[in-house]
Design goal:
Layout lengths: L6 H10 L7 H5 L8 H13 L8 H10 L4 H4 L10 H16 L4 H16 L3 H25 L6 H5 L8 H21 L5
GO molecular function: 5'-deoxynucleotidase activity; metal ion binding
Protein name: 5'-deoxynucleotidase HDDC2
Cofactor: Co(2+); Mg(2+); Mn(2+)
Length: about 190
Amino acid sequence: SAEAPGGALRLALLCLSSQRVPRTGWVYRRVAQPESVSDHMYRMAVMALLTEDKSLNKDRCIRLALVHDMAECIVGDIAPADNIPKEEKHRREEAAMQQLTQLLSEDLRKEIYELWEEYENQCTAEAKFVKQLDQCEMILQAFEYEELENTPGRLQDFYDSTAGKFVHPEILQLVSLINTERNKKIASASPPQP
């Protein structure tokens, strides 16, 4: 079936609204000028582009990164602190993805919805890699905020929430670099011990 007239334009406008949806975790922590959902997805897509892992389909990783939080332009960024059960969060996001993809031709609807499902179900190496990128981007962003605000260590809970979740070698290396740089900043900000 053909797309509804203007469906792609309406979807683009809806997705553009994610530029105005701040990432909730940063809002709750009173970060000045927090990143938006679209900022987050764009940086993840760039991080996926930079992978050198030949066993992964890089194009698919980029597309997964661009689609994984698309529903948030309708439902908002539901954070763990919101205490909404995972099943309810999934139900809301699934309904939003159906609403968004309904605007498209059958082929595009299927492609985008299936990418979102693949990420949600974590059923491929690419989806698992992108999930780790999601967590890695969060601590990279936390590191950046601590730098910008000159508050080393303030966002420790974001680091704690990712402990043990990284297994991909490239991501482990990046996380190690972030932690090394961050620990230097924390140490230099701490008063010397007597």
